[in-house]
Write a structure and sequence with these properties.
Layout (H helix, E strand, L loop, with lengths): L2 H7 L7 H8 L4 H12 L4 E4 L6 H12 L4 E4 L6 H14 L4 E4 L3 H7 L5 H4 L1 H16 L5 E3 L16 E4 L2 E4 L7 H11 L51
Parallel strand pairs: 1-2, 1-4, 2-3, 4-6
Antiparallel strand pairs: 5-6
């Protein structure tokens, strides 16, 4: 185990998010994942992945550290078929051993979105029942989780820490410090496949009704919730626990 992970694990109790962030502020993504694993153990650590256009890079880093770390995939009921195909391809290629698909409950969908038009009338509510609530349920067994946010994505992500306090859990952002160039280097070096929709102009892929292509010069997430002030689904704007 690397020196940073050893330092993190040397205390008798789980370090605070602030302590971990100080220790990992300049760490590589691999060091951040290894430190998270050492801090809480595999059974208590999960990775959230959308299997979107940039997801392969963090999945590769995590698989290199421990391919049995649980991966949570939120199947909202509105995902592109290409995303499912990409998920299956990456699972096989990277040898991911524990990918868990989590869906909203049928009771919730029947009660709050019976006509499947909530994405249009109230996208925040749609994200809540299809992403926020299912993630909260899926994270109950875990003490910490990993996600792929990056500062270069801007908006609310511009100042994210490497480790955040998520209530009763720790939230690790292994790619907080990476640049677009470093991300691309991982794709090239590892010969990772691209999301099938990337070639046709989708730089960030989420749910079908709320995802569109981006034009040259636009922010990479400009195609998410286009025409609305909304820029996040909600899983990163509130404490899940």
């Amino acid at each position: 185990m690397n020196a940073i992970a050893t330092k993190v694990s040397s205390v008798s109790t789980l370090p605070s998010a602030a302590e971990l962030d100080r220790a990992l502020r300049d760490a590589s993504p691999q060091e951040v994942v290894a430190a998270a694993l050492k801090a809480v153990g595999r059974e208590k650590l999960a990775l959230l992945s959308s299997f979107g256009t940039e997801s392969a890079t963090l999945l590769k880093v995590v698989a290199d550290v421990d391919s049995a770390i649980p991966v949570i995939f939120l199947d909202t009921g509105w995902l592109f078929e290409e995303t499912f195909a990409y998920r299956d391809k990456l699972i096989a290629m990277l040898g991911l051993k524990d990918v868990r698909s989590v869906r909203p409950t049928e009771e919730t969908l029947s009660r709050e979105d019976p006509d499947r038009d909530l994405w249009f009338s109230d996208p925040d509510a749609c994200c809540r029942i299809r992403k926020v609530e299912p993630l909260a349920r899926a994270l109950k067994p875990f003490s910490a989780w990993l996600n792929g946010r990056k500062r270069f994505q801007g908006n609310a992500r511009a100042d994210i820490a490497v480790v955040e306090d998520d209530g009763t859990r720790l939230k690790f952002n292994p790619f907080a410090n990476v640049s677009r160039e470093e991300l691309e280097a991982i794709f090239v070096r590892a010969k990772l496949p691209r999301h099938p929709l990337a070639a046709s102009g989708f730089r960030s892929v989420g749910c079908m009704p709320c995802t569109s292509r981006t034009a040259e010069g636009e922010d990479e997430r400009a195609g998410r919730w286009r025409g609305r002030t909304k820029t996040e689904c909600g899983i990163h704007t509130m404490k899940i626990s």
